[in-house]
């Protein structure tokens, strides 16, 4: 499967075969999966193991001072 | 269309790649394995001074060399008296797209424009995509990036998703594939259809672009310390970084500096496996690339790989995922530098190896990279837990790639594992032997000796049947 983003050449619905124009101007045809797909990757939740390590780093900093 | 079938496109591979790089690799070939490496590298046609000018024109390179005084102090405090080399890092995050990969893309983009190509294509899930998109934009060219992103459930690693976002922001068309052999087929199809230049990571152009990094390291270290670097630590995946920097060091007449490759240990995880694909918290700089690429460099999207790490590596060590995450936090807290995972892989090793060197000696970590959502340790750990990986605080020795990530509790729990380069040399030579399926010719022995950095007798020893059956060498 290859996924690519672009602007619809003509109105279409999810699940339909549509043609899009990509940022470099190519016309590609395929099944419409998502409209206005969001970037969903984040910074994530803090993890206790990392928080503990960072807390110990604070002690190192005091040693350095 | 039958001409687009997998078999037919793959059958036109040689022709497509020749057109897409303008490099006739067959000119350098000396049979099934041997080729004229230095001839190929020279044929790129850009001397180091010219590469430097090309890069200055688009704002690539001349990044600061930062001394990590607090980390050095910490190493000295915890280590043996008189030990603890000064640690420097080349802040490559300062390049236009945020990593040293701009150096690789810069020469490809310049060359492509000069030859009249309208755009660049790169098959990469790494920072190289953003670099190609950025350099294409700066040269007024178009770009298409092909990324391996999804497992069969449609899940993507947060770091790769971030890299895809960055390519899109910089104007690239981004084709995202599922894990598997599809990537290369899509690359060939796109190259054939568009007639764009293949900004491969593995052409002589790409490697020539990195040589300036080695040169700058030497110049800056000499200016700051009055000596040559004693070791340069280089995050090692496909081998281009090691090769380019080492060649740059040599061009700067720096022959005693140890070239140390560093990879994140992901042993046991298979890169082409749908199951394992999303159970690694690093997308590059890991053994899933560095082991196969070191022992067989020519598994790439060009006929002959210009990146040949065995020629240049003096030492090769691995670190664990949890150690790199810990060091990423250390760099932020103690040095005020929030940077991405690639450079911090080498930094983790530098903090251990610095104890082996005297206080007046100098270690250089060759790169930093930008960071942000998707790339930060917390993003990776969050995703790892969703994939069923245990994340705990403890001793990094308990680390199990794909099963358990261990964040060290204390600085003195950091360590490195040495990789036996002799074993990798043997593996490479034996693969070459299997490939030719007959005893090596004299020319092949000489080529392999040079390529694996050993002598002719060692090449012969590696292929002795008694050794093979005993699994030694």
Count of distinct strands of chain B: 13
What is the makeup of the main sheet of chain B? 7 strands, mixed
Amount of helix of chain A: 25-40%
- Strand portion of chain B, in percent? 5-15%
Explain this structure.
The complex is a heterodimer of chains A (65) and B (473). With 65 residues, chain A is an alpha+beta fold. Chain A is built from one helix and four strands; from the N terminus they run ββββα. Chain A has one helix spanning 48-64, and strands at residues 2-3, 7-8, 17-21, 27-31. A three-stranded antiparallel β-sheet of chain A has the order 2-3-4, with no helix packed on it. With 473 residues, chain B is α/β, with parallel strands linked by helices. In chain B, strand 3, helix 7 and strand 4 (142-150) form a beta-alpha-beta unit. Chain B has helices at 6-11, 13-21, 37-43, 48-57, 69-78, 101-114, 127-138, 158-169, 182-194, 204-225, 240-251, 274-277, 287-295, 321-335, 341-353, 377-386, 421-436, 442-452, 456-462, 465-470, and strands at residues 65-67, 86-90, 119-123, 142-150, 173-178, 197-198, 231-235, 258-264, 315-319, 362-365, 390-394, 404-408, 417-418. The model of chain B is unreliable at 468-473 (pLDDT under 50).
What's the gist of this structure?
Chain A has 65 residues and is an alpha+beta fold.
Give keywords.
heterodimer; A: 65 residues; three-stranded antiparallel β-sheet; rod-shaped; B: alpha/beta; seven-stranded mixed β-sheet; four-stranded parallel β-sheet; 20 helices; globular
SSE layout:
The complex is a heterodimer of chains A (65) and B (473).
Chain A: E1 2-3, E2 7-8, E3 17-21, E4 27-31, H1 48-64
Antiparallel strand pairs in A: 2-3, 3-4
Chain B: H1 6-11, H2 13-21, H3 37-43, H4 48-57, E1 65-67, H5 69-78, E2 86-90, H6 101-114, E3 119-123, H7 127-138, E4 142-150, H8 158-169, E5 173-178, H9 182-194, E6 197-198, H10 204-225, E7 231-235, H11 240-251, E8 258-264, H12 274-277, H13 287-295, E9 315-319, H14 321-335, H15 341-353, E10 362-365, H16 377-386, E11 390-394, E12 404-408, E13 417-418, H17 421-436, H18 442-452, H19 456-462, H20 465-470
Parallel strand pairs in B: 2-10, 3-4, 3-6, 4-5, 7-8, 7-10, 8-9, 11-12
Antiparallel strand pairs in B: 1-2, 9-13
């Amino acid at each position: 499967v290859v996924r690519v983003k672009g602007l619809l050449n003509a109105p279409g619905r999810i699940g339909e075969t549509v043609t899009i124009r990509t940022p470099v101007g190519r016309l590609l045809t395929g099944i419409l999966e998502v409209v206005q797909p969001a970037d969903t990757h984040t910074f994530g939740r803090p993890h206790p193991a990392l928080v503990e390590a960072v807390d110990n780093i604070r002690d190192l900093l005091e040693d350095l001072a | 269309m039958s001409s687009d079938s997998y078999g037919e496109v793959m059958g036109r591979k040689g022709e497509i790649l020749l057109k897409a790089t303008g490099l006739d690799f067959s000119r350098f070939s000396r049979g099934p394995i041997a080729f004229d490496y230095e001839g190929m590298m020279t044929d790129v046609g850009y001397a180091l001074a010219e590469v430097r000018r090309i890069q200055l024109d688009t704002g690539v390179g001349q990044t600061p060399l930062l001394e990590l005084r607090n980390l050095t102090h910490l190493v000295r405090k915890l280590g043996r008296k008189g030990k603890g080399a000064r640690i420097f890092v080349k802040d490559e995050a300062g390049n236009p797209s945020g990593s040293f990969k701009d150096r690789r893309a810069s020469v490809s983009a310049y060359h492509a424009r000069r030859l009249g190509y309208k755009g660049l294509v790169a098959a990469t899930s790494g920072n190289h995509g953003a670099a190609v998109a950025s350099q294409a934009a700066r040269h007024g060219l178009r770009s298409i990036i092909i990324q391996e992103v999804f497992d069969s459930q449609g899940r993507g690693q947060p770091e790769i998703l971030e890299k895809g976002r960055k390519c899109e922001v910089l104007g690239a068309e981004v084709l995202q594939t599922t894990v598997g052999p599809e990537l290369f087929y899509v690359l060939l199809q796109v190259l054939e259809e568009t007639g764009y230049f293949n900004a491969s990571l593995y052409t002589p152009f790409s490697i020539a672009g990195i040589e300036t990094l080695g040169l700058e390291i030497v110049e800056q270290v000499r200016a700051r310390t009055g000596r040559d670097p004693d070791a340069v630590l280089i995050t090692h995946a496909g081998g281009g970084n090691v090769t380019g920097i080492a060649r740059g060091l040599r061009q700067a007449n720096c022959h005693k500096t140890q070239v140390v490759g560093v990879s994140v240990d992901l042993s046991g995880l298979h890169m082409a496996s749908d199951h394992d694909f999303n159970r690694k918290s690093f997308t590059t700089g890991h053994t899933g690339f560095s082991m196969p690429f070191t022992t067989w460099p020519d598994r790439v999207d060009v006929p002959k790989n210009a990146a040949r790490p065995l020629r240049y590596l003096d030492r090769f060590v691995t670190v664990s995922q949890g150690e790199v995450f810990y060091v990423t936090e250390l760099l932020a807290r103690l040095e005020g530098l929030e940077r991405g995972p690639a450079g911090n892989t080498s930094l983790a090793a530098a903090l251990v190896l610095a104890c082996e060197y005297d206080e007046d000696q100098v270690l250089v970590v060759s790169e930093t990279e930008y960071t942000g959502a998707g790339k930060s340790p917390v993003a990776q750990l969050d995703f790892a837990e969703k994939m069923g990986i245990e994340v705990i605080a403890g001793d990094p020795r308990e680390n199990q790639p794909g099963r358990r990530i261990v964040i060290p509790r204390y600085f003195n729990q950091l360590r490195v594992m040495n990789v036996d380069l002799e074993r990798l040399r043997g593996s490479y030579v034996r693969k070459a032997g299997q490939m030719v399926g007959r005893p090596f010719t004299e020319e092949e022995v000489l080529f392999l000796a040079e390529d694996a950095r050993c002598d002719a007798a060692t090449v012969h020893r590696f292929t002795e049947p008694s050794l093979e059956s005993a699994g030694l060498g």
